[in-house]
Amino acid sequence: MLSGLLIVLLPLVLGYLVRVRDPRWMTPINHGVNASIYVILLLMGVSLAGLDDLGGQLSRLGSQALLLFAVISTCNLTALWWLSRRLGLTAGTSAVVEGAPTSKFAAMLGSLALVAVVVAGVVIGLLLEWLTGSGLFALAERLAEWVLYALLALIGCQLRNSGMPLRQIVLNRFGLAIALTLGASSLLGGLLAAPLLDLAWNEGLAMAAGFGWYSLSGILIGDQLGPLLGGVAFFNDLARELLAFVLIPLVIRRHAALAIGYGGATSMDFTLPVIQQHGGVACVPVAVVSGFILSLLSPPLILFLLTL
């Protein structure tokens, strides 16, 4: 199992070692990450189509994802509410930011598009099974594994060249405290949910270690534990982002740490415009640092926990 961890971590480390001096190269790298995510989620949908009793399995997937989401969110919201009362972080004057989403529905479209890709993969898998009799499910899993290696290398490169120096991360005590609180409470939730989902303790922890990075957590879990649990991890973390879009405008004025923290890893990208729009520019560096720390921790932590 240790060799499997090293094989998957190696692309991430190699990508992190690459320093991009010309900013123009980051555009194709970012596009490569997005394309890889769509390809892997499509292949994950194809693999889901190969499960026996697909209807029953999808029903199980939904119920498990809902249970995992409820337990982890309860732990997250409780811990972040406690932190909000002690941290003293306040939001600035709300202002409409150029490029920020004009509605919650507009902000959710990117997330819903990924769900549509998984559904399309299931449909394609069923059609392939009907046409060929086999569905090429094993081939889909193999292709997803190789695309995953490329994705991890590109993500490592993104993290190295994100412009976030270590000094800035360590000195931002608000972002650091929020990230550690969200991470610890998520892992506690995963540990509590593990027996309810009939999972080993380390698998429960791994399912919770996506910290909202649904595109990556679903892929990593699916590669190690199969497409069903990969789907559970994906929809658990996706539900976090969808709830964050609704929660942030409602609570950021009174509980800024809770609003920023609940977005998890997405607070540095997908939910950042909503945080900026409703919390002001003072919340931006805190959100970016918190999201960056969780994004940096998530992939190696998931892989490490799955080897225990």
TrEMBL record:
Residues passing through the membrane, by range: 35-54, 66-84, 104-131, 143-162, 174-197, 242-262, 283-306
Keyword Hydrolase attached: no
Pfam families in UniProt: Lys_export
Keyword Iron: no
Gene3D superfamilies: 1.20.1530.20
UniProtKB keywords: Membrane, Transmembrane, Transmembrane helix
Name recorded for this polypeptide: Lysine exporter LysO family protein
Organism name: Halomonas saccharevitans
Taxonomic path: Bacteria, Pseudomonadati, Pseudomonadota, Gammaproteobacteria, Oceanospirillales
